[in-house]
């Protein structure tokens, strides 16, 4: 699908380009110094009928569905590596829902926690930062994930302690046989496989701008639920589930980052093979006045 550039100054200037050529066009505009005197904005065009547009699509390297707008990917990664009140609130709420899912052995509530959990944003940001060599994004996303999960587990554990005092939460309930949610704290080889698949699907949805709720559910399959199980096990002290939940959380985070890095690296190679060699990790100097 084509993209439209807007040069925001006194008088907006519009330029429609094929999606797979958008990054190279943006790089050329920056090289000419446009971004120093104006703001460039990009927006998707849902539908367009034009012989010129069709010719531009044919001339652009690669397929529109495979075209990666690196400015958007990096911009999203920068945004996802910075903390916000909304991120921490959603993560706390998701972990609380996961805690209730553990107590009630409810697969439906596990899915609910997956939907609410926002953790894939910083996970994908880590992958983007590693592949493109952007250290600040990597460090920011790691810090956000660490602080976010510590806060979510702490709040959920405190709520569980209150529930324990009221008689709602017991060690027996947490340690009981849970056929529908036992997988949350019992990682195995398939946990890593699922994490790899989830990370690949998530990064593809990010780069192809095809993110949707179903992808979000798949990505969060055992991250937030493991955090909820960890919080309850700490609150009522079920040691064997503490280690299992931590391991499940670590396996999923590591697997998704590895898969994200592999997918992004393959996409960069594919872009270069199709003639779109530019990427955000490559700095371009501004041309001299004589060459401009």
TrEMBL record:
<feature type="transmembrane region" description="Helical">
    <location>
        <begin position="144"/>
        <end position="169"/>
    </location>
</feature>
<feature type="transmembrane region" description="Helical">
    <location>
        <begin position="213"/>
        <end position="239"/>
    </location>
</feature>
<protein>
    <submittedName>
        <fullName>DUF389 domain-containing protein</fullName>
    </submittedName>
</protein>
<feature type="transmembrane region" description="Helical">
    <location>
        <begin position="85"/>
        <end position="103"/>
    </location>
</feature>
<feature type="transmembrane region" description="Helical">
    <location>
        <begin position="109"/>
        <end position="132"/>
    </location>
</feature>
<keyword id="KW-0472">Membrane</keyword>
<keyword id="KW-1133">Transmembrane helix</keyword>
<dbReference type="Pfam" id="PF04087">
    <property type="entry name" value="DUF389"/>
</dbReference>
<feature type="transmembrane region" description="Helical">
    <location>
        <begin position="189"/>
        <end position="206"/>
    </location>
</feature>
<keyword id="KW-0812">Transmembrane</keyword>
<dbReference type="InterPro" id="IPR005240">
    <property type="entry name" value="DUF389"/>
</dbReference>
<feature type="transmembrane region" description="Helical">
    <location>
        <begin position="245"/>
        <end position="266"/>
    </location>
</feature>
């Amino acid at each position: 699908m084509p993209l439209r550039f807007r040069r925001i100054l006194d008088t907006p200037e519009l330029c429609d380009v094929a999606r797979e050529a958008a990054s190279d066009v943006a790089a050329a505009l920056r090289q000419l110094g446009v971004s120093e005197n104006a703001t460039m904005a990009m927006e998707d065009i849902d539908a367009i009928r034009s012989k010129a547009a069709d010719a531009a699509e044919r001339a652009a390297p690669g397929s529109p569905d495979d075209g990666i707008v690196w400015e958007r990917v990096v911009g999203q990664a920068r945004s996802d590596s910075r903390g916000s009140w909304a991120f921490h609130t959603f993560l706390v709420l998701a972990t609380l829902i996961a805690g209730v899912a553990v107590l009630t052995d409810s697969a439906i509530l596990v899915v609910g926690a997956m939907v609410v959990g926002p953790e894939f944003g910083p996970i994908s940001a880590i992958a983007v930062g590693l592949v493109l060599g952007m250290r600040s994004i990597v460090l920011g996303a790691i810090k956000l994930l660490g602080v976010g999960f510590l806060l979510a587990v702490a709040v959920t554990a405190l709520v569980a302690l209150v529930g324990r005092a009221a008689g709602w939460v017991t060690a027996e309930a947490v340690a009981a046989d849970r056929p529908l949610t036992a997988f949350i704290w019992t990682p195995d080889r398939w946990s890593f496989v699922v994490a790899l698949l989830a990370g690949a699907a998530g990064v593809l949805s990010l780069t192809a701008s095809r993110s949707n709720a179903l992808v979000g559910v798949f990505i969060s399959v055992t991250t937030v639920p493991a955090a909820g199980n960890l919080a309850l096990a700490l609150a009522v002290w079920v040691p064997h589930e503490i280690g299992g939940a931590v391991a499940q959380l670590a396996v999923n985070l590591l697997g998704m980052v590895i898969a994200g890095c592999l997918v992004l690296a393959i996409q960069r190679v594919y872009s270069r093979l199709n003639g779109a060699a530019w990427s955000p990790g490559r700095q371009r100097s501004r041309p001299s006045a004589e060459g401009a």
